[in-house]
Amino acid sequence: MGSKKKNSKSGAEYRHKRRVRSVAFAYIFVFILVAGIGAGGYLGVRTLANKLTDRKVAKEAEAAAAEAAEEAAKEAEIAAVLAEQEEAKAAEEEAEATEEEEYTETDLLEEVVQACIKDMSVEDKVAGLFIVTPEQLTGTDKVTKAGDGTKEALDKYPVGGIIYSGTNVKDADQLKEMLDNTISFSKYPLFLAINEGLGSESQLTKPLKLDATKSAKELGDSGDANLTYESYRILGQTLNSYGFNLDFSPLADIAIEGVDSPLADNMFTGDVNLAINLVASSVEGLKENNVSSAVANFPGQGSVDGDTSKGMASTSRTLDDYKMNDIAVFQAAVDAGADMITVGHFAAPELTGDETTPCSLSKEVITDLLRGEYQYDGVVITDALNKKAITEYYGSGEAAVKALKSGADMILMPENFQEAYAEVLQAVADGNISEQRIDDSLARVYRIKYRSTIEE
Predict the structure, then answer these.
(1) In 3-state terms, what secondary structure has residue 371?
(2) Confidence tier at 230 by pLDDT (50, 70, 90)
(3) Using alpha carbons only, what angle is made at residue 330 by residues 161 and 413, rounded to the nearest 5 degrees?
(4) Which listed site, 34, 121, 210, 356, has its alpha carbon 20 to 30 Å from 19?
(5) Is the CB of residue 295 less than 8 Å from the CB of residue 275?
(6) Residue 11 to residues 5, 16, 22, 200: CA-CA distances in angstroms?
(7) pLDDT tens digits for 169-182?
């Protein structure tokens, strides 16, 4: 009976110890579990916090990038606008520069011419189409000086030009003073003209004691274009030194063998190719010294054996003949710089269509042929209208009106200047000649007169 108690006590102690150990293990497990949960919570929170921080940074970075992109887009847009403005400005400047480059001396000349014409009265415009002698202008017998009479006459009749001859020249000082005074008395630029040839045809050699020169025919016989140029260069220099700016020279007429022409000494040759070279050389020689050429006598008077200063004369030459000969020489003169073409008073039925109308009063010759077919836009001037080829058939006013209606720009030396002027003025008032027609002719005249001013 004493051994079972001892064993029972030992088992109870064992079970008690095991329970204590189990409880201890339980507490330890709970502690470890709580500690683990705490640690895991801390790590999770930290990880979550890190994730939240990263997301915030990412959003901030994304927002910053979007803002930067927006700013860049705005800057790019501004830069594009500025570039477009700069491009437009450069294009405008280039256009202005191009426009300035394209604005030529010709444009300036045209502005000056039109401005001058715009301010003129119709009376002054009509007067500006006449070139007359100083005697015709002043009504005196012989003019060798320009004084009050010339001033009063120019105030009343501001003509386009005055043509002088050897009878108006006494000596070098007198000539220079007369021309200088005449220029000072005119309110508009003037042609101071002369019909000055070479050789025996010179009007100035004797009164001015100049050296004799070879005639046009002698120059033609020499066949020397350089000598011709030099002869006319010296002539131009002489004319310019006294104040002349227009010479009714040279002749572009072709000399025809067997024809007794009163122009024989003034024509170069019958060889068209040589005539082309010599006429061009003479025009260039005058032009070098600012002396305009009025090349005569369109369409070519070499085949006319009559003298138009004594009566009507004519030629039977055909248009084709003229085109291959004389007209080719006139074209060479224009190409060389001739400013005017003088139309002759002879009849040319093959060109005009009748046997009585002089070329100078023919629409077929001036407007249809010279202006139309040959596109000539320089000044067309009649031969002197005081020649009998005109005066025996037409009154002064009638001839002047007919010449303008046929296409001429200027009237040279009508028999009665005042009568011719009055009748042209009346024709404009009646509408028989339009004022625009007068303006067109005056514009051609003024392009010559103002050209040297613009070029300077």
Answers:
(1) helix
(2) very high
(3) 25
(4) 34
(5) no
(6) 10, 9, 16, 178
(7) 999 999 999 999 99
CA distances to 84, 340, 442, 444 from 157, in Å: 61, 23, 15, 20
Beta-ladder partners of 293? 247
Q: In this structure, how many other beta carbons lie within 10 angstroms of the beta carbon of residue 240?
A: 15
- Are 192 and 161 a contacting pair, CB within 8 Å? yes
What are the boundaries of each domain within the chain? 44-103, 105-455
| 191, containing H or E segment | strand 191-194
φ, ψ of residue 387 to 5 degrees: the values are -75, 150
294, two tokens = 């009025």
- What 8-state DSSP symbol labels residue 209? T
- β-pairing, 161-164 vs 191-194, is parallel
- Say how far apart CA 11 and CA 13 lie, in whole Å: 5
**DSSP-derived 3-state class of residue 382:** strand
pLDDT tens column, 103-119: 888 899 999 999 999 99
What are the structure tokens assigned to 18, written together?
Answer: 């095991």
Pairing of β 246-247 and β 191-194? parallel
Return the percent helix, strand and coil in the chain, to nearest 5.
Answer: 60, 10, 30
Whole-number average pLDDT of the chain:
87
Max Cα–Cα distance, the chain, nearest Å: 199
Say yes or no to pLDDT of 94 above 90.
no
pTM: 0.78
Assign 368 to helix, strand or coil: helix
Partnered with residue 294 across adjacent β-strands are: 340
Relative orientation angle of helices 396-406 and 435-455, to the nearest 10 degrees: 70
Q: What is the dihedral of CA 427, 109, 451, 364, to 10 degrees?
A: -40
**From 3.65.10.10, 3.30.2020.10, 3.20.20.300, 1.10.1040.10, which CATH number describes the 105-455 domain?**
3.20.20.300
Residue-level pLDDT at 398: 98
Residue 158, preceding peptide bond in cis (omega within 30° of 0) = no
**DSSP H helices in 103-193:** 105-118, 122-127, 134-138, 148-156, 172-185
Collapsing DSSP states into helix, strand and coil, what is residue 224?
A: coil
Q: 278-296 pLDDT, tens per residue?
A: 999 999 999 999 999 999 9
Cα torsion 39, 42, 46, 52: sign:
positive
Q: What single letter denotes the amino acid at residue 440?
A: D
Residue 182 to residue 153: CA distance in whole angstroms? 11
